[in-house]
Amino acid sequence: MHLSPNLVFSTLVVFVPTVAMAVVVTSASDPTVRAEPAKPLTATASLLNLSGKSVGTATLTQTDTGVNVAINASNLPKNSSLAWHIHQTGTCDPKSKFASAGSHFNPLNKAHGFEHAEGHHAGDLPNLNVNANGKVETSVTTPNISLMKNVNTSVFDTDGSAIVIHTKADDYTSQPAGDAGDRLACGVIKSS
Ligand SMILES: [Cu+2]
User: Fold this and answer.
1) 48-73, pLDDT tens digit by residue?
2) Gap from CA of 160 to ligand 1 centroid (Å)
3) Which pLDDT score, from 0 to 100, does residue 98 have?
């Protein structure tokens, strides 16, 4: 079942009075009973280009069906189709031209590409369509990654993960990375 953020919010509102009543009846002095309702897990990645200039932000939200990855970016090549992926290492060093972010996040050891028979990497994402002003604002929900720790598809593994935008489109088949060109921008995924 897919829960929209609005639905989650309204559910929390319903539960708040119940918790408050329980506090009054059973344990008015116990501060642990007053704990805030759990918020959805979220993370952000601030995307910088090779000059260190911000090109935008990606916001990640854990849902029942995966992780929603929303991107709002600008100063990108106009009218372009660009690959973006989750990469396996949470390090964005422009001196390395973002090679520091490593290969695609691939905890399940698949081949690259949505159209590959043995695909695809957990970090694969559908290409971004950048408009005539060099902007893109879109989101995708991927079932292949998690913001929860201690699961094998967690982006928060020991060395973290990063989001990388490339200079070309992903052809969804070429190995190891869809013939997507160089790395244009990079952002470390940080819990928020
Ligand atoms: Cu990539």
Assistant:
1) 999 999 999 999 999 999 999 999 99
2) 15
3) 98
Active site residues: 85, 87, 104, 112, 121, 124, 166, 183
Strand pairing of 81-82 and 128-129?
Answer: antiparallel
Neighbours of ion ligand 1 (CB under 5 A): 85, 164
User: What's this model's pTM, rounded to 2 decimal places?
Assistant: 0.80
Question: What's the 166 CA to ligand 1 centre distance in angstroms?
Answer: 6
Beta strand pairing call for 183-191 and 42-49 = antiparallel
Please tell me the distance between residue 151's alpha carbon and the centre of ligand 1 in angstroms.
Answer: 22
Q: How far is the CA of 164 from the centre of ligand 1 (A)?
A: 5
Secondary-structure class of domain 42-191 per CATH: mainly beta
Average pLDDT value for the chain: 87
The pLDDT value recorded for residue 38 is 76
Give 8's DSSP letter: H
* pLDDT tier, 40 (very low <50, low <70, confident <90, very high otherwise): confident
Given strand 136-142, what is the order of strands in its sheet?
84-87, 162-166, 183-191, 42-49, 54-63, 66-73, 136-142
Residue pointed to by tokens 């470390």: 188
Are 66 and 1 in contact by the 8 Å Cβ rule? The answer is no
